[in-house]
Amino acid sequence: MYFDTRNGQLSCSDCTPQGSPVSAGVLKAMRHICYSDDVKLFAFTLSEESETLLSAITERYVAAHISKRFKTLEFFKDLTRNREGSAL
Q1: What is the C-alpha to C-alpha distance for residues 46 and 19, in angstroms, rounded to an integer?
Q2: Long-range CB contacts (< 8 A, 24+ apart) of 8-13?
Q3: Nearest partner of 27 among 63, 62, 1, judged by Cα
Q4: β-pairing, 9-11 with 2-4?
Q5: Mean pLDDT calculated for residue range 12-34
Q6: Residue 29, helix vs strand vs coil
Q7: Closest Cα to residue 5, out of 70, 25, 14, 26?
Q8: Other residues' Cβ atoms within 10 Å of the Cβ of residue 34
Q9: pLDDT (tens digit, 9 = 90+) per residue, 25-49?
Q10: Are strands 9-11 and 20-21 parallel, antiparallel or unpaired?
Q11: Secondary structure class of 82 (helix, strand, coil)
Q12: Which terminus, N or C, of the chain has the lesser number of Cβ atoms within 10 Å?
């Protein structure tokens, strides 16, 4: 499956695949987030790789649909990059 962040659509590889490839686990988590009650919204687990993919996809989706930049998100990313750079 592929997720087109601009159009918010899923497509299979037999269709015209556009967007980011989505693993079965990430797809299941996306469906859970969309359809679960607020209390159970984040009641799922993913591998670190799948969490990274879900994070990137949702961030691109929000950026494509909201014309606002989030300074706290940019600050967090800077901290993360700086931490990863110092660990090397």
Answers
A1: 21
A2: 8/61, 8/65
A3: 1
A4: antiparallel
A5: 86
A6: helix
A7: 26
A8: 8
A9: 999 999 999 899 988 988 889 999 9
A10: unpaired
A11: helix
A12: C
